[in-house]
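> call design_seq(struct)
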């Protein structure tokens, strides 16, 4: 297997996807893990990537629309730093069922992913997964994490170069009402509470949320809020809560 500099040089010189696929296989073998996968989700929800997962799992993932419940995808859209799968939220019934199915299809019980931020709000991730114990996996992450961050961004740059037709268009500007809606949802208020605060019906609120989601190229409301925060379109925190007046007497914030 190539050293890091040689790997990056080979990646830079690649001019076809099959060459990148072979480099991914080489990287997997060198790192001695079960799988390495590059995963790009376009603004319209189309998935693109390459890696070493069993094709049957990739097809099953698509057929069952696991993209919408996968804690790895959801977690990486909300973070900038490398994500250890153990630290994600697997508490929901859908997430637990997904994890069980993934392990049954050879994905592995351990994993970490590098979130990638590309141009015009593009999102992708580079993932390594393996079936091993916690101590061994923590040692692996400590050894490889820095190089993986570099590899992830070089890989994404090459993918953008080879797949120019998939490069996302610049995001549209959110309206003031859309900003308000996503801000309060990001603060943890329920839809009913947000509609009450904005003095609109929940039906109208839903229209604002769907419009914002479309403009942001988001898969769901949580993804829309995460993208709006990461792009600096909304601010969620003490200043936003103060602007809301603390919403006295309305109870604790609810869920999205």
């Amino acid at each position: 297997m190539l050293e890091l500099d040689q790997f990056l040089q080979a990646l830079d010189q690649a001019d076809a996807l099959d060459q990148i696929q072979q480099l991914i296989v080489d990287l997997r073998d060198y790192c001695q893990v079960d799988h390495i996968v590059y995963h790009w989700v376009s603004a319209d929800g189309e998935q693109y990537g390459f890696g070493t997962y069993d094709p049957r799992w990739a097809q099953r993932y698509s057929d069952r629309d696991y993209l919408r419940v996968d804690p790895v995808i959801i977690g990486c859209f909300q973070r900038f730093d490398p994500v250890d799968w153990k630290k994600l939220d697997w508490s929901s019934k859908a997430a637990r069922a997904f994890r069980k199915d993934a392990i049954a299809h050879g994905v592995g019980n351990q994993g970490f992913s590098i979130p990638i931020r590309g141009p015009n709000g593009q999102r992708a991730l580079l993932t390594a997964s393996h079936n091993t114990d916690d101590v061994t996996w923590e040692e692996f992450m400590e050894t490889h994490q820095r190089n993986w961050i570099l590899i992830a961004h070089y890989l994404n740059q090459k993918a953008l170069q080879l797949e120019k037709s998939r490069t996302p268009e610049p995001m549209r500007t959110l309206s003031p009402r859309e900003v308000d809606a996503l801000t309060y949802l990001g603060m943890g208020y329920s839809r009913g509470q947000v509609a009450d605060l904005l003095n609109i019906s929940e039906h109208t609120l839903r229209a604002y949320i769907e419009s914002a989601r479309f403009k942001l190229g988001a898969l769901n409301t949580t993804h829309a809020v995460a993208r709006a925060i990461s792009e600096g379109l909304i601010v969620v925190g003490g200043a936003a809560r103060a602007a809301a007046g603390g919403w006295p007497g309305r109870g604790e914030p609810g869920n999205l």
